[in-house]
């Protein structure tokens, strides 16, 4: 697992979502000597950068849908 700068991260920080509860990711983290940390449940404030990025993506997708002329409720 490499990041944008072609370096292996030392820590993975994620929420406790089900998509991260997986043995393959745990094996990868252990093999690469990566510490895995989780935010507290129901506290998106602890992961502000990801939450802000998600908001940007949702807003852009909404703008493209409105601009396309498709019905807003599909």
UniProtKB/TrEMBL annotation:
- Check the record and name the InterPro entries matching this protein: Integrase_cat-core, Retrotran_Ty1/copia-like, RNaseH-like_sf, RNaseH_sf
Q: Which domain of life is it from?
A: Eukaryota
Q: Which UniProt keywords apply?
A: DNA integration, DNA recombination, DNA-binding, DNA-directed DNA polymerase, Endonuclease, Hydrolase, Magnesium, Metal-binding, Nuclease, Nucleotidyltransferase, RNA-binding, RNA-directed DNA polymerase, Transferase, Transposition
Q: Name one GO biological process term.
A: DNA recombination
Which reaction equation describes what this protein catalyses?
A: DNA(n) + a 2'-deoxyribonucleoside 5'-triphosphate = DNA(n+1) + diphosphate
Signal peptide start and end residues = none
Task: Quote the protein name from its UniProt record.
Answer: Integrase catalytic domain-containing protein
Q: Single GO molecular-function term?
A: metal ion binding
Any one GO CC term of the record:
nucleus
**Annotated coiled-coil segments of the chain:** none
Domain (Integrase catalytic) ranges: 1-74
């Amino acid at each position: 697992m490499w990041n944008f700068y072609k370096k292996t991260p030392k820590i993975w920080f994620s929420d406790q979502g089900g998509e991260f509860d997986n043995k393959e990711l745990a094996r990868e983290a252990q093999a690469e000597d990566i510490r895995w940390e989780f935010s507290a449940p129901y506290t998106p404030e602890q992961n502000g950068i990801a939450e802000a990025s998600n908001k940007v993506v949702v807003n852009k997708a909404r703008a493209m849908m409105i601009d396309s002329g498709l019905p807003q409720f599909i």
